[in-house]
């Protein structure tokens, strides 16, 4: 009987319309292997096999994650690797000769399912560049099969599986192993940046402390961390030296060898943390919920599952990018880190960390390591293998040979040339490889021109300038969502990416979140655009309904204009009061709506929603009724007392009706909310899709409920207030019309004003493209940039592959904007 992985693989293969033979031909995995996986005879495929099958099936992100999770859950079950079965047919391409020099993953495979994947046009390498090599780097794998994990219901173990699947996929996307990782080595940091060794070693008073020798390389990072009794480590390295890749490899290696009693390592981009507004533990829980929305569900107590995991010490924070914290916040950030006893890994550039240490103190009980530069031997081993094979006439020729020869012949008594200086970091080597190895019409020998590139800074700018045009030269075969790919012009892409980089610089965060893309606009602009768009939408709905009921175009236009104007003003004020005035923003919902039953509990309760909804609806209804009464009465008479009387009466009637309707609707929405599944790890598109589905369901509940209560309640309110407020005229037709318009208008107003997806629709999908700041297909553009290696994915958000690239694009965008402003009047 096939296991879960086999069932998932067979279902996805069938959905793709492929036979086992066709999938085998595409993926270079033997038919016998695929058949064995689907029938359950082969129970332990290697992760490289799983990734290859996922790629050739052209899976959507959700389907790909499902397949990887099934493979990870298989490993958690403790099954031992099955002996490799020989292929039924000879497949020489599926089992290449192992490479002793590179020690790559393909070289360690012993079965037909370990074939390497030919790629005539490899993607650009990773953000901090490829990382450390050879034999010391174990191939990406799922959780260690020898571990004895908790049952799948344990939230920490489910999180471990999700984190493993996510970062294995990300390491593949970043091409860390292509063709093999560049070395990332380190040495023990200076004593001035390290705490007392007695504190690091957790020694008792009067004990003698002997410093640890922490020197090592990438494949040893997890073991190095475990040698530190305090479990607190600071990783220092200059820009582009490989800190992010080191953090990624640490997480995967630690998970592979982790015992279930150890905390789960999770990478957090600490540059987005403001320690003056939120505590570290609360911020960690919020970030965990953002990337894994299912952990917003309530745990055993009143806190969320994410908060419980953080508070109980079952999360090992890997805090990447301390240097990216805004100026002025690094000292309070370091003080906040010292106020906790959490085990952690912190990465930073040396200067920024040293400055924070000088203002306060070192990270308590933390050892520190410093990444070292690449050597010329590293370059000679790596760069020639990144180019395409030369012709048969001269098989040993290589475009990098003249460059490497010139660098070797440089006199030792002279300062390093600009190129020798620049190529000491993996980031710059990765950029040079992308521009000059992957594009045969570019000659790397031009990098030796010291007249053109007289300083390392000019050479780095050259590499950064040419990176975007190079990666946008080629058309991608398909998007990550499985559809056809449109392709983007390099110049337009540079402009849009420049705006995004400038946007992140203004927000002082590295996280490119779809629900915050509109925050690059001024607050007044966001409020005005929201009010105008909302007024147009509700005015069109009201006018269309009025035309259908009364059949008079002039009356429909007038009615729609008045209602649209009033609704825009009212909901614009609500948006300003809710978000703009408080400096807040709408965030993605961590819940969904379930109409049939509510299997779980959320942190929200129906009672508070009923009270808040009633008060808010009453205030809105009174204001709306007062304005409507004033406008309609003023059209009939200029008697101020009559106008005021009618306005107050309408305000009271509308206020009572809208208050009850809003309170009941909010209460019902709260009762229908249920937490997302705990394994609902997200990427930016899936989070957007989930929130769009949640908002759609809210509209389907809001419109009929709110409309019915308003329509029926208006008649009841008129009857109850008939004597005390004087003679009131109200017909069944008027009640029905008010109910329909209020239901649709209220639903539209709620969605566009108070939800993250609504704000995304108004600002990012309409306004920003309309003003030329972003393309119309925003999500597709971001996915395209991710596939090309311009962006990297960090859970629910994107980030630029490196802070240097973001800063470079933002600077050029500002320069272009100033130039346009300067020449505009001429």
Give an account of the 3D structure.
The chain has 29 helices and eleven strands. It is mainly alpha-helical and 826 residues long. A seven-stranded mixed beta sheet has the order 2-1-7-3-6-5-4, with helices on both faces. A hairpin with a 2-residue loop joins β10 and β11. It is elongated, with a radius of gyration of 30 Å. The C terminus is likely disordered.
Summarize the structure.
By secondary structure, this protein is mostly helical. It is 52% helix and 6% strand.
What's the structural blueprint in terms of helices and strands?
Elements: H1 4-15, H2 20-27, H3 31-39, H4 47-56, H5 61-76, H6 105-108, H7 155-173, E1 185-188, H8 197-200, E2 216-217, H9 221-226, E3 232-236, H10 243-257, E4 264-269, H11 280-291, H12 305-311, E5 315-320, H13 330-338, E6 344-348, H14 350-359, E7 367-371, H15 376-382, H16 401-408, H17 418-422, H18 426-436, H19 456-471, H20 490-507, H21 523-550, H22 553-580, E8 591-593, H23 606-634, H24 640-672, E9 673-675, H25 684-721, H26 732-754, H27 756-770, H28 778-787, E10 791-794, E11 797-800, H29 803-823
Parallel strand pairs: 3-6, 3-7, 4-5, 5-6
Antiparallel strand pairs: 1-2, 1-7, 8-9, 10-11
Instruction: Estimate percent helicity.
Output: 40-55%
Class derived from helix and strand content = mainly alpha
Task: Name the assembly state.
Answer: single chain
The N- to C-terminal Cα distance equals: 77 Å
Number of DSSP helices? 29
Strand order of the largest sheet: 2-1-7-3-6-5-4
What is the alpha-carbon Rg in Å? 30 Å
Mean of residue pLDDT values: 79
> Can you count the beta strands?
11
Shape: elongated
């Amino acid at each position: 009987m096939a296991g879960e992985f086999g069932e998932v693989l067979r279902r996805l293969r069938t959905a793709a319309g492929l036979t086992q033979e066709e999938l085998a031909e595409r993926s270079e995995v033997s038919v016998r292997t695929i058949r064995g996986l689907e029938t359950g005879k082969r129970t332990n495929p290697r992760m490289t096999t799983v990734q290859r099958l996922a790629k050739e099936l052209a899976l959507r992100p959700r389907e790909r994650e499902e397949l990887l999770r099934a493979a990870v859950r298989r490993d958690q079950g403790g099954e031992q690797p099955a002996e490799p079965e020989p292929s039924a047919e000879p497949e020489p391409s599926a089992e290449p000769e192992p490479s002793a020099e590179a020690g790559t993953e393909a070289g360690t495979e012993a079965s037909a399912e370990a074939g390497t994947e030919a790629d005539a046009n490899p993607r650009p390498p990773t953000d901090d560049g490829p990382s450390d090599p050879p034999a010391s780097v174990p191939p990406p794998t799922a959780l260690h099969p020898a571990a004895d994990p908790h049952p799948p219901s344990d939230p920490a173990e489910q999180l471990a599986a999700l984190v493993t699947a996510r970062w294995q996929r990300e390491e593949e996307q970043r091409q860390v192993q292509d063709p093999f990782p560049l070395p990332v080595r380190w040495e023990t940091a200076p004593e001035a940046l390290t705490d007392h060794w007695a504190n690091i070693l957790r020694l008792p008073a009067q004990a003698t402390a002997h410093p640890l020798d922490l020197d090592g390389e990438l494949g040893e990072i997890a073991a190095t961390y475990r040698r530190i009794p305090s479990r607190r480590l600071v990783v220092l390295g200059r820009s582009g030296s490989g800190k992010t890749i080191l953090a990624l490899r640490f997480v995967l290696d630690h998970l592979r060898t982790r015992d279930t009693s150890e905390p789960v390592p999770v990478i957090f981009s600490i540059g987005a943390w403001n320690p003056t507004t939120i505590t570290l533990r609360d911020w960690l829980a919020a970030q965990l919920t953002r990337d894994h929305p299912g952990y917003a569900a309530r745990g055993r107590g009143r806190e969320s599952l994410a908060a419980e995991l953080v508070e109980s010490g079952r999360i090992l924070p890997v805090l990447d990018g301390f240097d990216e914290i805004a100026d002025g916040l690094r000292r309070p950030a370091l003080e906040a880190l010292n106020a906790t006893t959490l085990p952690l890994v912190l990465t930073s550039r040396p200067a920024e960390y040293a400055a924070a240490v000088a203002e306060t103190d070192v990270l308590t009980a933390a050892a520190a390591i410093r990444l070292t530069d690449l050597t010329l031997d590293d370059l000679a081993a790596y760069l020639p293998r990144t180019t395409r094979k030369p012709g048969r006439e001269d098989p040993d020729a290589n475009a990098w040979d003249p460059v490497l020869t010139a660098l070797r012949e440089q006199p030792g008594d002279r300062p390093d040339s600009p190129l020798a200086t620049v190529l000491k970091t993996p980031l710059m080597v990765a950029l040079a490889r992308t521009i000059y190895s992957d594009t045969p019409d570019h000659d790397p020998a031009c990098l030796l021109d010291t007249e053109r590139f007289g300083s390392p800074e000019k050479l780095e700018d050259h590499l950064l300038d040419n990176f975007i045009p190079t990666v946008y030269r080629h058309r991608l075969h398909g998007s990550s969502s499985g559809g056809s790919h449109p392709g983007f012009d390099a110049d337009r892409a540079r402009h849009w990416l420049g705006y995004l980089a400038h946007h992140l610089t203004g927000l002082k965060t590295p996280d490119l979140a779809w629900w915050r893309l509109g925050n690059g606009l001024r607050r007044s602009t966001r409020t005005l655009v929201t009010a105008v768009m909302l007024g147009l939408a509700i005015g069109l709905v009201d006018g269309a309904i009025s035309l259908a009921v009364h059949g008079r175009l002039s009356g429909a236009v007038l009615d729609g204009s008045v209602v649209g104007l009033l609704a825009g003003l009212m909901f614009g004020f609500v948006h300003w009061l809710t978000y703009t005035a408080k400096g807040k923003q709408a965030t993605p919902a961590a819940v969904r709506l379930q109409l049939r039953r509510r299997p779980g509990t959320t942190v929200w309760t129906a009672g508070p929603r009923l009270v808040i909804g009633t008060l808010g609806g009453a205030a809105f209804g009174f204001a709306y009724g007062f304005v409507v009464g004033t406008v309609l009465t003023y059209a009939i008479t200029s008697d101020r007392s009559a106008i005021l009387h009618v306005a107050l009466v309408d305000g009271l009637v509308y206020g009572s009706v809208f208050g009850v309707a809003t309170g009941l609707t909010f209460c019902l929405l709260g009762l229908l909310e249920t937490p997302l599944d705990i394994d609902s790890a997200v990427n930016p598109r899936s989070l957007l899709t989930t929130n769009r589905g949640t908002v759609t369901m809210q509209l389907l509940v809001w419109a009929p409920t709110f409309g019915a209560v308003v329509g029926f309640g208006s008649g009841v309110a008129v009857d109850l207030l008939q004597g005390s407020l004087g003679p009131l005229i109200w017909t069944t037709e008027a009640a029905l019309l008010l109910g329909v318009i209020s239901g649709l208008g209220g639903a539209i107003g709620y969605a566009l004003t108070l939800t993250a997806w609504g704000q995304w629709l108004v600002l990012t999908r309409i306004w920003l493209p309309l003003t030329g700041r972003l393309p119309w297909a925003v999500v597709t553009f971001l996915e395209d940039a991710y596939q090309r290696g311009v962006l990297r994915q960090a859970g629910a958000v994107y980030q630029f592959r490196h802070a240097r690239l973001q800063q470079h694009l933002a600077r050029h965008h500002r320069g272009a904007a100033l130039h346009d402003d300067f020449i505009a009047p001429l």
